Amino acid sequence: MEQEGEVWVYIQHQGKDVVEPSLEVLGKACELAAALKVSVAGILAGEKVDVLAEKVLMYGAQKVYVLQSRHLEAYSPVIYAKALCKLIRSKRPAIFLTAATLQGRDLAPRIASALRVGLTADCTDLKIGSYTDHKTRQEYNNILLQIRPAWGGNIIATIVSPQTRPQMATIREGIMKMPPQVRSSRGEIMHIPPDVQAGDIKTTVLKRILTGRRVNLKAAGIIVAGGAGMGTKDNFDLLRQLAHALGGEVAATRAAVDAGFIDHEYQVGQTGISVRPKLYIACGISGAVQHLAGMQESGKIIAVNTDPDAPIFSVAHYGIIGDAKDVVPKLINTYRHLSH
Ligand SMILES: Cc1cc2nc3c(=O)[nH]c(=O)nc-3n(C[C@H](O)[C@H](O)[C@H](O)COP(=O)(O)OP(=O)(O)OC[C@H]3O[C@@H](n4cnc5c(N)ncnc54)[C@H](O)[C@@H]3O)c2cc1C
């Protein structure tokens, strides 16, 4: 393995554990590093974060750089960016990735602007490939292709930053597969004393209040989602009944949220949550690209729609052409009948 030009992932942690989106990004980083034949490293910053290093190795990293200091106890963008920029300048990774969590979205642009490198936010895929600059005819090989929807989701753009290092991207939560956890970790844990002082802290955290989400759609094995085609809030309740019968969660399109059928936190798609349940039942959903972006990786998709030409059928494994108001009660009854 080459030592230079590594693929790095910023590992966010909360409540003494690594957050899942960082591990999802790590899984993708392993693929990229394998294609480049370089090491993949996790970057941990915080106060007592060395205890998390083993876990990062168990999810595929070959190295973990630990930046540990009491000054990094609470996440603060200025001091974290300073510590990370120093590390990046000294080790010169080829690629630096973070999950597009609130913290990742806060931190990555600060690092990118301090290092004067490009950054693509909210990527939905990453690949290693080539790019030719048509003006200069210069060819760049083994660069990071940063893929994300653009122009309101109407195109999927591939963005490159071929001339600067590291190539930086934040990655949407829930899109990349969680890598498998191995039982015993093998790899290097490197403690790098961060060059930070108390004076670098510009803000003081007085109190931290964690408000958990009321719904955790990402953890749901079964999702029953509804769209504008459900017609009314009362009809939407049918989906809650089906979700309840199947032991799943209910979700929605933006049109259903805008119509007031359900809260925004249940919205799946480009500007909502990305999910990959084992089963996704889409009722009265047309299948706009912005919705598909958040659910098309589901294990099995069943679509119920009155319009046989609805785009949702292009991603569905099973399609039912019919009125969801008739079909959903039948599904509930059939399931109840079969399960008794
Ligand atoms: C920048 C941007 C971001 C966006 N982000 C998101 C996002 O995160 N998530 C999202 O979902 N959308 C998003 N959208 C909106 C997206 O473009 C669509 O407008 C939206 O997904 C459509 O929702 P829908 O399928 O519920 O409604 P519609 O497109 O109106 O489709 C309703 C469907 O229901 C069917 N239908 C009607 N009556 C019945 C019935 N009785 N039984 C069965 N089927 C019936 C119709 O045939 C139709 O196919 C975004 C748009 C933009 C521009």
Explain this structure to me?
The protein has a 7-stranded parallel sheet, sandwiched between helices. A 5-stranded parallel sheet has the order 14-13-15-16-17. It has 2 domains: 2-200, Rossmann fold, CATH 3.40.50.620; 217-338, Rossmann fold, CATH 3.40.50.1220. The chain has helices spanning 20-36, 53-58, 77-91, 102-115, 233-246, 254-258, 289-292, 324-338, and strands at 2-10, 13-14, 17-18, 38-46, 63-68, 95-99, 119-123, 125-132, 139-150, 155-159, 167-171, 188-191, 222-226, 249-252, 279-283, 300-305, 318-321. It has 340 residues and is α/β, with parallel strands linked by helices. It has 8 helices and 17 strands. The longest helix is centred in the N-terminal third of the chain and has 17 residues, at 20-36. Bound molecules: flavin-adenine dinucleotide. Flavin-adenine dinucleotide binds next to helix 6, helix 7, strand 16 and helix 8.
* Gross CATH architecture of the largest domain: 3-Layer(aba) Sandwich
Helix segment tally? 8
The helix content is 25-40%
Largest β-sheet summary: 7 strands, parallel
Our Rg estimate from Cα atoms comes to 22 Å
| Beta-strand content | 25-35%
Mass-distribution shape: globular
Structural class by helix and strand composition = alpha/beta
Which whole number gives the mean pLDDT?
93
Q: Give the CATH H-level superfamily of the largest domain.
A: HUPs
**CATH fold node name of the largest domain:** Rossmann fold
End-to-end separation in angstroms reads 57 Å
The set of bound ligands, ions and cofactors reads: flavin-adenine dinucleotide
- Number of strand elements: 17
* Biggest β-sheet: strands ordered side by side in the sheet: 7-11-6-1-4-5-12
- The domain count comes to 2
Unreliable residue runs: none
Order of helices and strands: EEEHEHEHEHEEEEEEEHEHEHEEH
What is the level 1 CATH name of the largest domain? Alpha Beta
